[in-house]
Amino acid sequence: MFLTTFFNALVYWTCRLLMRAGPFQVFGNLVASFIDFCYATLYKIVTNSHKETEKLVVAAIKNGTGKGKVAIITGANSGIGYDTAKALGRVGYHTILACRNMELGEKALNSLIEETDLDNFELMALDLASFESIHKFVEQFKERHDSLHLLINNGGVCMCPYMTTAEGIELQFGTNYIGHFVLTDALLDVMKRSSPAKIINLSSLGSYMNAGIDKELVADKSRYDKSRAYYNSKLALTMSAATLARKLEGTGITANSINPGYVATNIFQHVGLSAKIQNMLFTNTVMGSLTTLAAVLDQQYNDTTGQYFVRCQPTYSHPSANSIKEQDDLWEFTEKLVAKHSDQRSYGTF
């Protein structure tokens, strides 16, 4: 525990120290990434992810953490989302797999039922790159369920060539962040009625690679850089969780962001890393789900909100996530961007 706390602090303070120091930021990012990867490799060796997951699940079952509760996980047909769904289903949550590819979603649903011998899993269609799909999902969810206790914004795309959402927003920012922003806003009324409830945004170390939100990356196609666009979207998710924590104070809803670590999943399909190389360098998806599960199931974090979790514990968040001015600036930019590409003008859930 102490070693993890120390290395988390070392990594993120190195980033923070040089984050806004012009050309030195790149140097800081490289050093921090190297330290993080080295410790992540050691952590992978010394941590039995299956055993740690089992401990969290057994304790949560004993405490009745998920009994009678409903959870939504986006992008749950594979990878981190799949293993997170599996653990939550075992804990007792009625777990909804919100998936774009329904064929893969159906396979995941059948596998979860077979592996757990449980029937508390449900598949629903959701394409985060389409406002129409998001609103349809929310409408169908509210017809079927009158409560929501856990929303895990897990789905996303990584470092793809320039593409846009159905509404014309740059795909990585539009899917990873904007799609989840619209989804979360539309579900907050149900979550308020169900409180206590939790929102988890999946971010990454990449959120630290940008000094702040770069709006031009979203607005100007000619400036598109697939790596920086990905970092932009992940920083927005971290900031959004911090903003939600502040706006939802007193409602019984907590909001946190987590960094799952270096995990071998199909999200790297556009990066050119083969499955064989990923499996050699990165952790498995069970370990990738561990920090999410700790933030959700570990009772010591029941009231924790506005934090950034790494390796199952809160650590130092990006300076932009701690700045109310920058939080509000991103929120205003987001509302205007959504309004520009849709009929939505009101965010009356706060």
TrEMBL record:
Source domain of life: Eukaryota
Gene3D superfamilies found in the cross-reference section: NAD(P)-binding Rossmann-like Domain (3.40.50.720)
Gene Ontology molecular function: any one: oxidoreductase activity
Record flagged with keyword Oxidoreductase: yes
Keyword Oxidoreductase set for record: yes
Entries under InterPro entries matching the protein: NAD(P)-bd_dom_sf (IPR036291), SDR_fam (IPR002347)
UniProt keywords, alphabetically: Oxidoreductase
Protein name, per record: NAD(P)-binding protein
